[in-house]
Design goal:
The protein is mainly alpha-helical and 306 residues long. It has 4 domains: 15-93 and 101-128, no CATH class; 150-216, no CATH class; 217-252; 255-306, no CATH class. It contains 15 helices and 5 strands. The strands form 2 sheets. It has a 3-stranded antiparallel sheet with strand order 3-5-4. A two-stranded antiparallel sheet has the order 1-2. Strand 1 (2-4) and strand 2 form a beta hairpin. Helix 12 crosses helix 13 (256-263), helix 13 (256-263) runs antiparallel to helix 14 (267-281) and helix 14 packs antiparallel against helix 15 (286-305). The chain is elongated. Bound molecules: zinc ion. Residues 218-248 form a coiled coil.
Length: 306
């Protein structure tokens, strides 16, 4: 690195210093440990090649990078096979064999073949990737026991009143949610295809912690939310009942026969209602009463004929 003022710039005239291979083996093995459980969070949105597993595992790439790292990955693989002999079913080497010369990586019994075909937790044959560590093969039983209580994104939103920008803030680095998302932790999650649809899964306990950060006490928040929803539904029902009563009132004073037909009441009762209305309108005046009687008879006749 050369320095120009306070800003450091990369010097391309000198070969880069190889820090990785100079690390002690135990540190390189620690890095390999992390690479084994490799995870592509958005694999369901990745290329077909990546989904089908045609992209090499990071350990394959690391071992292929130089002789030194290949040796380290090989030693790590030997340790892995022996440490997990109960599931790898590794056969003990012949007593006269030199273990340092054995290739633990390639071939049918090598690490690369084993991790591509076996559940990393029970060793059973499996082509299924772990949802939250999709660099590993994992049978569905082990997936459930290793990462219990997973929750879909839809359930996380509905059960904890969270939005997309809360759950996946890194996808909202710009725009109106960028500021709120910047303060939230990133949750671990995995994506996989279910019947051709990309599904995102989280761990329930992670979502609960996030929801507490967003809402304060999430359980209290959900109770309050349910109360407000109930209150809104109650007000809506009361409003609808009031509107229906107004309609009913209007119908009985303007279209009593139509109402009788709709409710199944007799025309006679509609007629009585109409007569009463007319009488009321004329406040008991003789003229109004006579008119109402004439109208009543005429309408009754019409109804009987009809
Ligand atoms: Zn398993």
């Amino acid at each position: 690195m050369a320095s120009r003022g306070k800003r450091k710039v990369i010097d391309l005239t000198r070969p880069p210093i190889d820090y990785l291979t100079t690390l002690p083996p135990e540190l390189i093995h620690e890095i390999i440990n992390h690479l084994l459980a490799n995870h592509n969070t958005d694999i369901a949105f990745a290329s077909r090649k990546e989904i089908d597993g045609d992209v090499p595992h990071p350990l394959v790439t690391l071992a292929a990078s130089c002789k030194k790292l290949e040796t380290e990955v090989n030693q790590w693989a030997e340790h892995f096979f022996k440490q997990h002999a109960a599931i790898t079913h590794i056969k003990p080497p012949p007593t006269n064999a030199n273990p340092t010369q054995r290739d633990w990586l390639h071939g049918p019994s090598g690490l690369f073949n084993w991790i591509a075909k076996n559940c990393a937790f029970c060793g059973k044959k499996s082509q299924r990737a772990a949802i939250l560590a999709n660099g590993l093969k994992c049978c569905s039983g082990c997936d459930r026991s290793q990462w219990p209580d997973k929750i879909t994104k839809t359930d996380a939103k509905n059960q904890f009143a969270l939005k997309e920008h809360h759950l996946l803030p890194h996808r909202h680095q710009f725009g109106q949610f960028a500021k709120s998302g910047a303060t939230l932790p990133r949750l671990r999650y995995g994506t996989y295809m279910v019947s051709g649809v990309a599904t995102t899964m989280f761990l329930r306990r992670d979502v609960k912690i996030l929801a507490d950060l967003v809402h304060g006490d999430v359980e209290e928040h959900m109770k309050e939310r349910a109360r407000v929803k109930e209150e809104r539904a109650r007000k809506k029902e009361a409003k609808e009942k009031k509107a229906a009563a107004i309609d009913e009132e209007w119908e009985s004073t303007h279209t009593p026969f139509q109402r009788a037909a709709r409710t199944g009441e007799s025309s006679e009762s509609a007629m009585l209602e109409l007569t009463q209305l007319i009488a009321d309108h004329h406040e008991g005046g003789a003229e109004g009463f006579l008119f109402s009687e004439v109208l009543r008879e005429s309408m009754l006749r019409d109804t009987q004929q009809g």
